[in-house]
Specification:
The structure is a single chain. The protein is 41% helix and 20% strand. By secondary structure, it is of the alpha+beta class. Strands 1, 2, 6, 7, 8, 11, 12, 13, 14 and 15 form a ten-stranded mixed sheet that branches. It has a three-stranded antiparallel sheet with strand order 5-4-16, with no helix packed on it. Strands 3-17 form a two-stranded antiparallel sheet. It is elongated. It starts with a strand and ends with a helix. The relative contact order is 0.09. Bound molecules: adenosine-5'-diphosphate (ADP), magnesium ion and zinc ion (ZN). The site of adenosine-5'-diphosphate has 15 residues, from strand 1, strand 11 and strand 12.
Amino acid sequence: MSGWQLVIGLEVHAQLLTRSKIFCGCPTTFGAEPNAHVCPVCLGMPGVLPALNRQVVEFAVRTGLALGCAIQEKSVFARKNYFYPDLPKGYQVSQYELPICQGGEVEFALDGAERRVRLTRIHMEEDAGKNLHGVAADGSSGVDLNRAGVPLLEIVSEPDIRSIDEAVEYLKALRAVLMYLGVNDGNLEEGSFRCDANVSVMPVGSTVLGTRCEIKNMNSFRFLRQAIEYEMRRQVEILEGGGKIVQETRLFDPQRGETRSMRSKEEAHDYRYFPEPDLPPVRVPAAWIEEARRALPELPRARAARYQRDLGLSAYDAAVLTADRRTAEFFDAALVARGGGAEAAKRIANLINGEVARLANEAGSGAPQGKLAPAALAGVVRLVDEGVIGGPGVRQVIEELFREGGDPQAIVAARGLAQVSDESAVEAAADAVIAASPDEVARYRAGNAKLLGFLVGQVMKGMKGKGNPAVVNAVLRRKLGSP
Ligand code: ADP
Ligand code: MG
Ligand code: ZN
């Protein structure tokens, strides 16, 4: 596909972590029986009136401030009219001409370079319900309105994104910010963070954007990659065959790895937007905005920069640790428990990004640190610093702490994981190896320094892997003399 430049603009729908819906008191919890969380307001009964949930506005302001948007002191809800079975009112309450946030940007690193993708706007809206097909005994469809009226932020980017990797990094950075702010749980599978991708191509060097297609509702980074990849190829093939791209909305089919047409693109006028007559304009006083600004938490990129500056962590370690706020907080707590310092920071970062991340990956779901407590991880680092356990012991202790929790020292004792640093025990094992390997010893002494590794290995084997490698090395060197 050389000769073509990919162009992407993303629209993210992020479900806000309020306890109740945007215009009524129904709960927002996921996974309830269909239609357990509904009332006359979110069912769209005639004669009811919406009442705006204040927390939705607070969350929108917080998000806008964190992303450098201009917060609008006056914004307006609008009705977006369309018919669909999961939309009982026949319109969605959203924002159109006057959204709560304008401009802003998402910053992230891509292949070591700093990237910024501009935001167009962020607005507040209500989610629709969900059609359930083939659920009834007779195979007919039903509608679940638990999600109807759940508050969303729609975060719209400019068409600034130029590659699939960039799209993924943009989404990861945005998701991290929302999770740090406590406004969204970042859960793609449950649909609380979902994304529509607008994709077009243009000849390399062109400044005129091509016609785009919008791919709806992708709920994993893997599908997003596949869908954009497929869509780019499809568009290039059409253009190279002399055809034209028709602007349309497409759906990604994960089973077949393709996008297919869902409907021709609707224009804004199709929706007959008009200001929602049942809700007054939203007014956010300047003082309120300033207070929210002061209350912003430290954001992932600032935290990563601090880890590099104050703790000497690598850019990679800092980025991985801060991508998820829980992990960063876990790291901070473990570091405090170990007494701080750059050396401890490095060791703790290595364990969290290495062994613990591997276990979390294997476990697939659940807390990223399993049952491992920060103080327990600090305890493991202390045991390493004191020479009590080495590499293999560390892996086993962490694995048990991750699965079962508990106290590292007790696990080391119960499982016999302590390494042997006692000189006389190491000397006995070394003497046995030296006696049994006259050949290797002679070659080592004749100048083949590499054989030290072999001899260390033999001593470790003799000690069932429990010898302290530093002590084993020192004892062998002493006994063998210099090569
Ligand atoms: P709509 O409301 O119809 O979805 P918008 O103008 O709000 O349309 O744009 C939606 C998204 O499409 C934005 O994220 C924008 O960046 C993106 N977009 C616009 N033009 C293009 C293009 N030519 N190629 C790729 N993305 C585009
Ligand atoms: Mg759109
Ligand atoms: Zn309700």
